[in-house]
Write a structure and sequence with these properties.
8-stranded parallel barrel; binds ligand PBG; TIM Barrel; about 325 residues
């Protein structure tokens, strides 16, 4: 029996030269799609390296200025500020003190970069509480959802008044987006945007971050962060936040949750971001230090994968460096 001869279909044709590959590339990296997380610690005279995140530091109020200018000059789209206070207490009063480290840092950074880069702040209590939880505790030591919402509403007003343009709701309390939106609207902060960390999983990959903020946490966050096995629930949380008025929704961590990211991206009518977290950073850095991985290629590939899965923007500790490579054309 004779069959019609078929030509071999040759997808490789489009891979044959760098110029062709560049022309047909589906996912490009751009500095404006990167957000740099920045830590500012109270009461220090200069930057302090974070051992588990080589290349990342806790900034002083002085050293943070140069860091954000460098990011802005590299074309990075945004900055996400975290504060590391000197003193902590049960309700995290440092978070709502206008002279608390995060709020002071926000004013300093806004003063330095103005509108050249979007200044955003972490809105969560964990850095400010002496027990390290993301909320306040009830008499039995459980995280009290609705009492925490009141604290978040107070934080939102102070952060907005300090000049934060986007508030990063990272505490995973039910109703936090609606509660914070209502408080901001009542106070006239109509232009302050909300980034909801909607699908935030209880992840081992936050390990180095806990060093970065000197976390006081004993135990875990499994009563409020998502179970790593749950894909459908990640989408549900994102849809709830959109209903509550989130301007942007996020999936976090990124690399181990690309399926959730793709689901949220397909369903969302607001921008979808992803957070490439401290553990994802540390793994690549550690392997690269051993010479086990090509650092630069691994960094670019990991961020590109997150973009390909559906993230419009990526929070990454490599934001400034990666933006520099892209601008030099090395990673177009
Ligand atoms: C909570 C918060 C965490 C991170 C960002 N915001 C830590 C946590 O939930 O334990 C983790 C970021 C990272 O690991 O890079 N405020």
């Amino acid at each position: 029996m004779t069959s019609t001869p078929h030509p071999v279909i040759r997808p490789r044709r489009l891979r044959s030269t760098p110029a062709l590959r560049r022309l047909v590339s589906e996912t490009r990296l751009h500095p404006a799609d990167l957000v740099l997380p920045v830590f500012v610690r109270e009461g220090i005279g200069g930057p302090i390296p974070i051992a588990s995140m080589p290349g990342v530091v806790q900034h002083s109020l002085d050293s943070v200025r140069a860091a954000v200018v460098e990011a802005a000059e590299a074309g990075v789209g945004g900055i996400m500020l975290f504060g590391v206070p000197e003193v902590r207490d049960a309700t995290g009063t440092g978070a709502t003190d206008p002279d608390g480290i995060l709020n002071v840092a926000t004013r300093v950074v806004r003063d330095e970069v103005g509108d050249a880069v979007v200044v955003q702040t972490d809105l969560c209590l964990d850095e400010f509480t002496d027990h390290g939880h993301c909320g306040v505790l009830d008499a039995l030591g459980r995280v009290d959802n609705d009492a925490t919402l009141e604290r978040y509403a107070e934080m939102a007003l102070v952060q907005a008044a300090s000049g934060s343009q986007v508030l990063g709701l990272s505490g995973m309390m039910d109703g936090q987006t609606a509660a914070v939106r209502a408080a901001l609207d009542d106070a006239g902060f109509l232009d302050t945007a909300l980034l909801a960390y909607s699908a935030k999983y209880a992840s081992a990959f936050y390990g180095p971050f806990r060093d970065a903020v000197d976390s006081q946490l004993q135990g875990d966050r499994r009563t409020y962060q998502l179970d790593p096995g749950n894909r459908r629930e990640g989408l549900r949380e994102a849809l709830l936040d959109i209903e509550e008025g989130a301007d942007v929704v996020m999936v976090k961590p990124a690399g181990s949750y690309l399926d959730v990211l793709a689901d949220v991206s397909a369903a969302s009518d607001v921008p979808v971001w992803a957070y490439q977290v401290s553990g994802e950073y540390a793994m690549v850095e550690a392997a690269a230090m051993h010479g086990w991985i090509d650092r630069r290629r691994a960094v670019a590939e990991s961020v590109r994968g997150i973009r390909r899965a559906g993230a419009d923007a990526v929070l990454t500790y490599w934001a400034t460096e990666l933006a520099g490579w892209i601008r030099n054309g090395d990673d177009a």
